[in-house]
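so i finally got all the pieces together for this one. its three components total, 757 residues if u count the protein bits. some of the lines might not be protein, just check the labels. i wanna see the whole assembly predicted at once instead of chain by chain like last time, that was a mess tbh
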Amino acid sequence: MLEIKNISKSFGNRKVLKNVTLEVKKSEIMVILGLNGSGKSTLLKIVSGIIKPDEGKIIIDSQDVTVLPPECRRVGYVPQSPALFYHLSVKDNIMYSLKNRRGCEKTAEKIIEMLGLKDYLQFKPRQLSGGYKSRVSLARALVSEPLVLLMDEPLKEFDAPTKKKLLPEFYKVIKSINIPVLYVTHDVYEAELIGERFAVVTDGELIHLASASEALEFIKGKIL
Amino acid sequence: MKNNIISALFIPLFFLLVIYPILALLGHVNGAGILKTFHDVLFWQSVKNTIGAAFIASGLCLVMAIGFGYYHLFAKDSYLYRILYRIANFINDLPAALPHTVAGLALLLAFGRNVLGFVSNTGLAFMKVSVVFAMFFVSYPLAARAISAGVDKIEAEAIDVARTLGDTPGKVYLRIVIPSLGMAMFSSFGLAFARSISEFAAVIMFGGNVPGVTQVLASYVFTKVEEGEIDMAVTASAFCILLSLLVVGFLNLINKREKINA
Amino acid sequence: MKRKIWTLLIFVLLMSFNFGYVYAYKDPNGALKSESEIFKGQKLNLYVAAGLKKPMDEIIAIFEKETGAKVVPNYGPSGGLYTQIKMGQPCDIFFSADWLYIEKLKEDRKLAEGQKFVQDKLVLAVSQTGKNKVKSVKDLIKPGVVVGVADTRAPVGVYSERALKRMNIWDKLVSSGNLRARPATVNQLAIMLQKNELDAGLIYSSVAKAFNVEYVEEIPQKFTGEIIFGAAIIKGGNEKLAKEFLNIANDNINIFEKYGWRAVKNEKQYY
């Protein structure tokens, strides 16, 4: 389980996150919506350990990881751009965490199979299309056997048809892993397809909502 | 080719201020000068000493610059790193700002026999090693800046992801950052090399400037100018220029081949 | 008659103006308004061999005070300064550590006036550590002695090589490997001795005095040749102002003697 307790963060004078509290259970996909610049990405980076919060705690499976650097936490991070390691092959990208003794070959094979990457292992990342780069990015994160999965608008760059194709695949793979998932997006329809619980970040505050459409209404209301 | 005011101004100015002086120098090379120079043993000795020392100095610059790049990247991570980085960054620019003779004097006082007398009767000064070190001292800031520019170009998210996959900062730097530096390493080495072969005041003070042993090409040219042997000075200078062009061209070639294979 | 008287009066008036003007101009102290107004605000491009810096700074101060002109000094090795002048860099007056460059300027037809200025001698200077190792020139080739001789771009380097060659020591010195440093100027060599980074070196007695460096032997003139520092007024520069500077320098030659040079007894003029 992932527990985010009273997280606050400011950049200079701007308070980006105010007292954010949130719980995500195993196998639950929590979608976080919000306008650009609302602090959603910052929240993910704090959970992964890349940014340190000003206040608050992050607890993963009952362990307080707030002061731990990213390499000591067991989080999987899928950023906005695929951020693949371009000097390594697709296979080496996916199996990267094995260098740090995280994950095993069996898990890797399963995930490669599920995401349809078996025929692409010897390629270099530059040779792949956008959709496949995203698959590799997700595979790489999952092979490390994380306790929490963080996805920061992973399908931002894609058009609607591609999204429609990839999302169900991703959903199947993520659900099979059985860990809490934080999925950030500003696309309400994407949220509807993949999400089970919903929240909105606005003015630094996190507000729980019942559904994606409710979130849409909320955001519309905020703008008007 | 855009016909606009920028082209109209820049292109002729570039030719006039950058290309023309080099051509003027090359244009003054004549057969007599070439013969005299190529027959001078001291010329070839200074060439050998200069290239050899510059090569080693540039390699050293590159290694140290890569080390600097680490702190440049991870400065924000901890209090200790931040302090180390600020100091390194500040000092980085110092050798470049010092007048070259002052830099040479500083090296002499720091590593001469008063401090390192146990190493030799001149400390670490007045030897071929000293030439390398003087070159390193004045070229390092350039190399460091080229590498840190290269580090900045690397996608921050890739580094973040590697850390979530279990890499400590050190491991990320070795496994992801350094392999991705590519062109930056070549330009770092190239800049350091070009700077090293043109340095002479610091090298004279600390290296010793003894013809045939620690005299560098730049000093040789200068001496020829003073002696009134303009022909030889021009030949030696042209040699220097062609040498630099060769190095830069070679580095570019390697880089292109790297890009194709990638 | 009236016309003759008027003519005489005007003649006398004009003549008195004439004499008065000549009298004012000839006054060597230049305290009169007419002379200082001539030079006030002008700039003098002064090239000076590095070794003469200290006494020359005092001369510059006197000159600027007396004439109101401003001096733009350029210190460096005599050879380098000569080349700059040869290449056309603006220079009004040049003080060289080697009379050779004055002669070269005459050959180049750039000399308006040349003058042998001061004399110096070459000495074997030693550092603190060198004191115990080197007592005379022949000690320079003993094993383990660290020697510095200026580069030939500085006149002191030329004098040193010439002297050591005439004493049959130069080749032995080079082959012994004791010659470890050939700095570009005499001052750099003096600093190295002062800071004890070398054991011994050949410098001018004036420089030794300036840097507080001891010397153990004076090199006889028969080996070094005359070491004459020369002054050259450059053709085409501000020759009047340069002449004024030279006059003031000559009048204050005692300043140079204070720093260890000797005045040249028979001034030789070149045109």
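The beta strands of chain A are 2-11, 14-24, 29-33, 55-60, 63-64, 75-78, 148-152, 181-184, 197-202, 205-209.
The mean pLDDT of chain A is 88.
anyway lmk what u think
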